[in-house]
Structures are given as structure tokens and as C-alpha cells.
Amino acid sequence: MRLTIVTGVLLETQRFINVPMRFGERYLARERRELWVREHDGRERKWVIHTRVLPARRGHPIVLLVVRRDWVVGLFNASTGMTVNYPRADPPFLLRGCDVLVVLASALVLPAALGAAGLALLLPSAVIYLIVAACGRFVWRWRLRRRVDKALAEVRRSTEARPTAWRER
To answer: Which domain holds residue 18?
Structure first.
């Protein structure tokens, strides 16, 4: 997992309240923010963050920490010095919809392959799978939070060393 740093000036922000959820849909947060950021090379780009927290206004120089090309996991506002670690503020769910599919698939495969023994192993295997999946995602989320905290602290230190560089761009 690699963190990418995107720097720029916040051009526009829009706040949306998510519609009521339908069956099978789960949002990370009830609110969605769309940010338009002008990067330092002049390009403008839209970023979507599912959160209630956005410590920046139009015209503020910001730093975004991004994972997987479009998932914003951290924000640093160079004007105010405020930071947000989004995996900490709005953590992702530990269990996902695909876990239900895995349990259902095992409910079909185990009895077909093992007969009565498969039926006996169905509940314990489903419980073990869900526990392992949740624990694995919990550890991954914990590591991501720590990496984002360290990266935000490093960004803060580097901008405190040269605060005027942000305003000159």
C-alpha cells in the first residue's frame, strides 16, 4: 500500500447528504464531499471523500494523502495547520458484502463435497471465516491509520520549515 501526496489549492467544495440506503448498500459516512483542487502543475482534479469532516475552505492550500489512485485517506490544511486522518475519523466497515457471498458459496460447496460432514462444518467454517476476515481488516486498518498519522506529521513538519512556499505558488 503506497501513499501518494497531492498538493494544491482548494478551488471548490460541495457537500452532499447521501440518499437513504437500499438493500446491500453501505456508505462509509452519511455525507459525501466533492473537492476540486488545482494542483501545482495547473491541473484541476475532482476528489470525493465520504466524511463529515473537512477542515478546509475555498482558497486554502491543502495536501491530500491518497491510496489506490482515488481514495483520500488524509488531509492537511497548510493555512490552519489542521489535519484529518480519514480512516480514523470515518473507518471503513470490517465486514463487506463479498463476505456474505463467500459464506453462501461455502454453504453450497461444503455439503456437496463432504456430505453430512460438510453440513457439520458449515457453521464453524463460516464463523471462523468471518472472524479471520474482520481481524485481518482490523489489522490492515490499524496499520493504515498509523501510516497516515506518520505521513501527516511529516507533511506538517515539512511545511512548518518553509511556510512561505505555500503562499507564493
So the answer is: 4-168
